[in-house]
C-alpha cells in the first residue's frame, strides 16, 4: 500500500499584495460613504472658519505681527483633520471582527505585518485624501509655498498620519465596541491635539503647560507641519527644532507600527 501524499502547504501571499489589497479596501469603503466624507471634511473646516474669525481681532503673539489667526490656525486644522481621519478609520478593525472578516484574514497564510500595513496605509490614504482637499486653500491665505516646501508638508502629513493610524489600530485591536473606542479616543486624542500648538503658540505658555507640550509627540509633528508654510526648505531643514521634531515623529511612527504588529501577533480570546 503506497503511502498517502502529504498535504501541500498553502501558498503564502506576498507582503506587498496583501497590504495593498487591504489598504484599497479601506479607501473604497470610505469613498462609498458620502456622508462620512462630508462629515470628516466639514468639522475641521467649521472649526477653522469660526475660531479663526473669532480670535483674529485679539491674536497678537510676539514675533507674529501681521499674521491673522486664520493663517496661524490653518496648519492646526490640517493636523486636526489628519488626526480624526487617521484614528477613526481604524474603527473598521472592530467592525471587521464583528462581521467575521478579521478572523478570516488571521487564519490565512499571510504575514501579520501585512495586516497592520494594510490597515495603517488604508487609514493614511483616507487622511491624506481629506487633507489634500483642505491644502488647496493655501493660496487663498496669501501663503506662498514652494514646491520644496509643499514636499516637506506632504511628507509631514504622511508621517503624522501613519503615527496616528498605528496608534488607533493598536487601541482598536483590543476594543469590543465602537462606542467604547470613540469614548477612549476622544478623551485621549483631544488633549494631544490641544497641547500641540495647533490652537496657540508654545511661546508664552505657562511653564507646566510648555513642559507637557515639549513631551507631546503631536507637538513635534505640528512643528514639522507648520514650518514649511513660513520658511524656505533650506532654512527649515537646517533648523534644530525641525530636526528634533522630525526625529521624534519618526520614532513615534516606528514605535506605533511595532506595537501594532505585537498586538496582532498576540492571540486574543475574542479573535
Short description:
The chain has helices at 15-31, 34-55, 69-89, 92-99, 101-107, 112-135, 147-172, 178-194, 207-214, 217-230, 233-238, 240-265.
Coarse structural class: mainly alpha
Shape: globular
The whole-number mean of residue pLDDT values reads 81
**Poorly predicted ranges:** 1-12
Distance between the termini: 42 Å
Approximate helicity band:
over 70%
Please report the number of helical segments.
12
Count the beta strands: 0
Major β-sheet annotation: none
Strand fraction equals: under 5%
Taking Cα atoms only, what radius of gyration do you get, to the nearest Å?
Answer: 21 Å
H/E series:
HHHHHHHHHHHH
Can you characterise this structure?
The chain has twelve helices and no strands. The protein has helices at 15-31, 34-55, 69-89, 92-99, 101-107, 112-135, 147-172, 178-194, 207-214, 217-230, 233-238, 240-265. The relative contact order is 0.13. Helix 7 (147-172) runs parallel beside helix 12 (240-265). It has 271 residues and is mainly α.
Helices, strands, pairings?
Elements: H1 15-31, H2 34-55, H3 69-89, H4 92-99, H5 101-107, H6 112-135, H7 147-172, H8 178-194, H9 207-214, H10 217-230, H11 233-238, H12 240-265
Helix pairs in contact: 1-6, 2-3, 3-6, 3-7, 3-8, 6-7, 6-12, 7-10, 7-12, 10-12
Which terms summarize this structure?
271 residues, mainly alpha, 12 helices, 72% helix, globular
Amino acid at each position: 500500500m503506497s503511502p498517502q501524499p502529504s498535504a501541500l502547504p498553502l501558498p503564502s501571499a506576498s507582503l506587498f499584495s496583501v497590504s495593498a489589497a487591504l489598504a484599497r479596501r479601506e479607501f473604497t469603503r470610505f469613498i462609498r460613504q458620502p456622508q462620512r466624507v462630508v462629515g470628516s471634511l466639514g468639522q475641521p473646516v467649521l472649526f477653522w472658519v469660526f475660531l479663526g474669525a473669532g480670535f483674529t481681532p485679539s491674536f497678537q503673539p510676539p514675533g507674529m505681527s501681521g499674521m491673522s489667526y486664520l493663517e496661524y490656525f490653518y496648519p492646526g486644522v490640517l493636523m486636526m483633520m489628519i488626526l480624526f481621519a487617521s484614528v477613526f478609520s481604524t474603527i473598521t478593525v472592530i467592525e471587521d471582527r464583528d462581521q467575521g472578516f478579521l478572523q478570516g484574514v488571521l487564519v490565512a497564510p499571510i504575514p501579520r505585518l501585512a495586516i497592520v500595513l494594510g490597515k495603517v496605509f488604508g487609514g493614511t490614504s483616507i487622511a491624506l485624501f481629506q487633507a489634500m482637499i483642505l491644502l488647496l486653500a493655501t493660496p487663498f491665505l496669501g501663503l506662498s509655498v514652494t514646491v520644496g516646501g509643499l514636499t516637506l508638508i506632504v511628507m509631514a502629513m504622511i508621517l503624522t498620519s501613519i503615527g496616528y493610524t498605528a496608534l488607533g489600530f493598536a487601541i482598536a485591536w483590543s476594543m469590543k465596541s465602537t462606542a467604547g473606542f470613540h469614548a477612549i479616543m476622544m478623551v485621549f486624542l483631544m488633549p494631544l491635539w490641544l497641547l500641540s500648538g495647533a490652537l496657540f503658540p508654545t511661546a508664552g505658555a505657562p511653564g507646566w503647560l510648555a513642559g507637557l507640550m515639549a513631551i507631546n509627540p503631536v507637538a513635534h509633528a505640528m512643528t514639522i507641519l507648520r514650518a514649511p508654510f513660513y520658511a524656505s526648505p533650506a532654512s527649515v531643514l537646517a533648523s534644530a527644532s525641525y530636526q528634533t521634531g522630525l526625529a521624534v515623529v519618526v520614532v513615534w511612527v516606528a514605535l506605533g507600527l511595532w506595537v501594532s504588529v505585537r498586538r496582532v501577533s498576540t492571540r486574543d480570546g475574542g479573535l
